[in-house]
């Protein structure tokens, strides 16, 4: 385990020194600051806009990070042949996959923490302390990014960087829209479409299980079981994707 | 023998077509020798080295290292420098070596000492805290050598190690290879440079299209040549091969440099280049 964590830490350092990492942090902060302009345009309580954007910014930044960096984390190292040096050392291919996965989680957590912290401070300066809302939002976002990290690792073991990014983006969009699409299809009274969407919902993970932004911003109730169910869903899904990554990577010609 | 390569084949699939990178290759490598692998591009040298290093598996056959099949256990015995090595570019040289120390489970103090020792050995002690992305190709090659020998392995695999090195770097590496051999290490060297192979290797294998064409004792290839073994600075053993007409001049030169001649022996028949061309000329080169 020490070897896996050491390699994770090195991958974390390597990626956190990339310009793209700083660029994404800057982008997330820019989103936050954009709420100042947006709240001028929207009728209603100004804090609602701050809160909405405050929860959306780490989410967008985190997902962009996983899509741009995570989706080619393994394939990039295969192409650059960095992994020849690593795999000639006493660390297994599975250990190598886990190291990359842990590094992605660590990097995602850093992004969530920093942007959420900026958001909280920003709102605090403007006169409202909404720590509980930000912490709850960050909690669910962490598990959503955990799941997306495992999918990105899996995709990058066998797809080219661009294909991997596109596939992950499709999974993300589908994961957030399928449950709504199924509900809407019931009104359309089109059974084949309903079956098709239902079948897709079994393939794509349901990312709406991690989306309670509206409930938090408008102080609407949501099932408390979500605090347990959503993480469990994310962990089980992640275990499946990481196990699949082990299998695919063990057969991959390097 | 320290390495036994037993009838290994490696098949890659390109679309539906199968491509043999190695075809029933068998070899043995003895402990303490410098073993050269020669052959044109795409001959299968790198594939063989990657299999020995445990990075890829053969499609059939097996490789034994000290009687043990290649696996996690044998990685402790091997140091590997890939061709055109690439490392995490945002890491500093010291951080890279630190990672290698961690992967080999070195205790903190011993690891730090080893890092200092290696940075000095490869002449990078002033650049330990510099990012690898700022290094020249030769410097990257040198840090590559340092990571390969970090754990003092019994077997060192070097894939085209002279690539990108300036004359000084080449000399340093040659001396390092010879000093490691003197310490009883086994070195496997893949190279296109026949002069390097002549000067360094004890035996060479000629590979083409994934098949072993021949293995030969380098000493037996030299007609009208003599091998002079001498001791430099009272401790470093050196070996040179000279033609008969240059023998006395060379002996004089060695004596002038206050070196002690240990032995002079006459060599056998043929040159490495002739040997190489003899075997490769009839085959299609994959360049």
What would you say this structure looks like, in words?
The complex is a heterodimer of chains A (254) and B (287). Chain A is mainly alpha-helical. Chain A has one domain. Helix content of chain A is 81%, strand content 0%. Chain A has helices spanning 2-16, 19-41, 46-68, 73-80, 82-87, 93-125, 131-156, 161-188, 191-203, 213-217, 226-251. Chain A starts with a helix and ends with a helix. Chain B has 287 residues and is of the alpha/beta class. Chain B has 8 helices and 13 strands. In chain B, a hairpin with a 2-residue loop joins β9 and β10. The interface between A and B is medium-sized, with 25 and 30 residues.
Secondary structure layout plus pairing:
The complex is a heterodimer of chains A (254) and B (287).
Chain A: H1 2-16, H2 19-41, H3 46-68, H4 73-80, H5 82-87, H6 93-125, H7 131-156, H8 161-188, H9 191-203, H10 213-217, H11 226-251
Helix pairs in contact in A: 1-6, 2-3, 2-6, 3-6, 3-7, 6-7, 6-11, 7-8, 7-11, 8-9
Chain B: E1 3-14, E2 17-29, E3 34-38, H1 45-52, E4 60-65, E5 68-69, E6 78-81, H2 93-103, H3 108-121, H4 137-148, E7 155-159, H5 167-182, E8 186-190, H6 194-200, E9 203-208, E10 211-217, E11 225-232, E12 236-243, H7 247-256, E13 260-266, H8 272-280
Parallel strand pairs in B: 3-8, 3-9, 6-7, 7-8
Antiparallel strand pairs in B: 1-2, 1-4, 4-5, 9-10, 11-12, 11-13
Helix pairs in contact in B: 2-3
């Amino acid at each position: 385990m020490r070897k896996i964590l050491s390699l994770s830490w090195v991958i974390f350092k390597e990626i956190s020194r990339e310009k793209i990492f700083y660029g994404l942090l800057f982008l997330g902060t820019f989103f936050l600051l954009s709420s100042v302009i947006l709240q001028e345009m929207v009728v209603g309580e100004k804090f609602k806009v701050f809160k909405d954007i405050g929860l959306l910014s780490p989410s967008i930044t985190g997902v962009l990070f996983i899509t741009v960096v995570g989706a080619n984390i393994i394939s990039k190292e295969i192409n650059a042949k960095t992994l020849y040096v690593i795999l000639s050392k006493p660390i297994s291919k599975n250990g190598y996959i886990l190291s990359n996965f842990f590094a992605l989680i660590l990097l995602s957590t850093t992004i969530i923490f920093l942007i959420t912290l900026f958001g909280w401070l920003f709102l605090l300066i403007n006169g409202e302390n909404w720590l509980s809302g930000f912490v709850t939002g960050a909690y669910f976002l962490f598990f959503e990014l955990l799941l997306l990290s495992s999918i990105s690792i899996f995709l990058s073991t066998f797809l080219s960087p661009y294909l991997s990014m596109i596939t992950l983006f499709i999974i993300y969009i589908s994961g957030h829209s399928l449950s709504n699409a199924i509900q809407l299809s019931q009104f359309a009274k089109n059974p084949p479409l309903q079956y098709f969407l239902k079948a897709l919902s079994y393939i794509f993970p349901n990312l709406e299980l991690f989306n309670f932004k509206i409930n938090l911003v408008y102080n609407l109730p949501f099932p408390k079981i979500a605090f347990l169910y959503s993480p469990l869903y994310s962990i089980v899904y992640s275990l499946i994707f990481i196990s699949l990554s082990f299998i695919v990577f063990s057969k991959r010609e390097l | 023998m320290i390495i036994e390569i037993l009838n290994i084949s490696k098949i890659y699939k390109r679309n539906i077509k199968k491509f043999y990178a190695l075809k029933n290759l068998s070899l043995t490598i003895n402990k303490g020798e410098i073993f050269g692998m020669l052959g044109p591009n795409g001959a299968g040298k790198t594939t063989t080295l990657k299999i020995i290093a445990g990075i890829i598996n053969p499609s059939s056959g097996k490789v034994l290292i000290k009687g043990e099949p290649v696996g996690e256990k044998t990685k402790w015995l091997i140091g590997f420098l890939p061709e055109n090595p690439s490392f995490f570019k945002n890491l500093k040289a010291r951080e890279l070596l630190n990672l290698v120390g961690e992967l080999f489970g070195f205790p903190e103090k011993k690891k730090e000492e080893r890092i200092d020792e290696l940075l000095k050995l490869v002449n990078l002690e002033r650049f330990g805290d510099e990012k690898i992305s700022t290094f020249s190709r030769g410097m990257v090659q040198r840090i590559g050598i340092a990571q390969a020998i970090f754990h003092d392995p019994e077997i060192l695999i070097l894939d085209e190690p002279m690539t990108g090195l300036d004359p000084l770097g080449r000399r340093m590496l040659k001396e390092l290879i010879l000093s490691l051999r003197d310490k009883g290490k086994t070195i496997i060297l893949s190279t296109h440079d026949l002069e390097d192979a002549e000067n360094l290797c004890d035996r060479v294998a000629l590979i083409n299209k994934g098949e072993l064409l021949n293995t030969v004792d380098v000493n037996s290839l030299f007609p009208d040549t003599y091998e002079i073994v001498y001791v430099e600075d009272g401790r470093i053993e050196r070996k040179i091969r000279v033609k008969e007409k240059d023998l006395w001049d060379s002996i004089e030169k060695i004596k002038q440099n206050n070196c002690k001649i240990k032995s002079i022996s006459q060599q056998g028949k043929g040159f490495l280049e002739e040997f190489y061309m003899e075997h490769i000329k009839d085959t299609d080169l994959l360049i």
